[in-house]
Amino acid sequence: MARVFRFRLETVRRLREQARDAQRRVVADAARVVKSAEDRIEQSSRELRSVSAESRDARRMGRLDAVLLRRHQHYRGWLQRKIVQFQEELSAKRAELDRQRAKLAETQKDLKVIEKLRERQLQRHLTEVAREERLDHDEAAQQQYMRGRQGEHEVAV
């Protein structure tokens, strides 16, 4: 009967799989944070364009309300500062995402090393089992041949 293949580092392989899966979740979370920051920038930029258009339209229409123009100017300045702040945050969050992706690549590489080792050991095991089976078949054939020769020899005597 063929021996059962046992990979002695199976626990290590499972731990590395778990580490890879956990790192995938970290990368996904970091990507969501980056997307959220990009969305905030886009929303603030749309609001800035909208306020600028309102101010432009008010000037074209001849409605020169100094208080309204001052409020729009103040709000535009505030939005511009917020956009710059969001862009700085986005830059830091993208850097963090890149670091987490690098960690993910490392955990995937570690897992791949163990999986390749497992594949090689399995191939060696299968080769050895096939060799043992071939030897068993050869021995059985040889014994059968020898029994047949003995039977011929007894009949001839």
Descriptive account of the structure:
This protein is an all-alpha fold and 157 residues long. Helix content is 90%, strand content 0%. The radius of gyration is 37 Å and the shape is rod-shaped.
Question: What does the secondary structure layout of this molecule look like, with pairings?
Answer:
Blueprint: H1 10-60, H2 66-156
Helix pairs in contact: 1-2
Fill in the keyword field for this structure.
157 residues, rod-shaped, 2 helices, mainly alpha
Which regions have little confidence, pLDDT < 50, spanning 5+ residues? none
Strand proportion, as a percent range, falls in under 5%
Could you estimate the helical fraction of the residues in percent?
over 70%
Please give the number of β-strands. 0
Q: Measured on Cα atoms, how large is the radius of gyration?
A: 37 Å
* Name of the CATH architecture: Orthogonal Bundle
Which overall shape is indicated by the principal axes computed on the Cα atoms? Answer: rod-shaped
Estimate the mean pLDDT confidence. Answer: 90
Here the CATH topology equals Helix Hairpins
Order of helices and strands: HH
Main sheet overview: none
Number of domains: 1
